[in-house]
Here is the input.
Amino acid sequence: MRYKGRPVQVRPFVFYISLVHYRRTPARYFQILKNTEMRLLLISNSTNTGEAYLDYPKNNIREFLGNKKIQALFIPYAAVTFSYDEYEEKVKARFREVGHDVVSIHHFTDPVKAVMEATAIVVGGGNTWMLLKCLRDNKLIAPVRKKVIAGTPYIGWSAGSNVTCPTIMTTNDMPVTAPSSLKAFNLIPFQINPHYIDANPAGHAGETREQRILEFIEVNRDIFVAGLREGTMFLLEGRKLSLIGPRNARVFSYGTEPKEVKAGQDLSFLLKKRKG
Ligand code: ASP
Here is the structure.
């Protein structure tokens, strides 16, 4: 093609414009070309009070991973007061119960390669600051993001759900260590607050969870926060986001009243950039 007498290369130009204009990453292009869908199971908490570890979400995990046995790569970096071996054992036991398995990343000499070769990625809870620091120190942010965008299933609970957000700024954890940045995998465009709780104990003058999130959206006005109550989880399959579990989620957005959303409701608004 010629424009004003000069030859014009249309295709690279179109690619450039869509890359810049729609802020598409090369990984997103890869996903479009391969026609794969991003799949995430983002669980609020590992354990409901009085139940065994990972017991309540085990059937969701089974369904999410499918009938064919999968050995997922487990990332135990959120552990602080217990060992990676102990953590792997606990998770392995539950995954085996539902016909799957995990192997922890700490057994591999090259963690990036382990991620690139994983059939599924599982990130456990614990301390979110420690988790992000270890992910960053091991240079795993970009590889995990790329793999998951290209269709590798991702399961996270608690801290493992926090790191799928743009940042870890809505964690409940104390910053016991300092990661090089607060930026996380940025697989979803909104923030999750796991273990979301409404209670405001009598005689306690500290901030409620809602007050803390209202502070976050006052300063970060362009982003939704979803308070994910215990016993619930988000399932993302491509462009479809759903809430699973017996409780509503509470969605916060600057300038509007917090809103309760239910299982079965269309939550695609959370995947769009917040307007206004
Ligand atoms: N400490 C939580 C977890 O269990 C994360 C959080 O509450 O933000 O991983």
User: Anything to note?
Assistant: The pocket of aspartic acid is lined by residues 78, 125-126, 128, 158-159, 162, 171-173, 194-195 (CB under 6 Å).
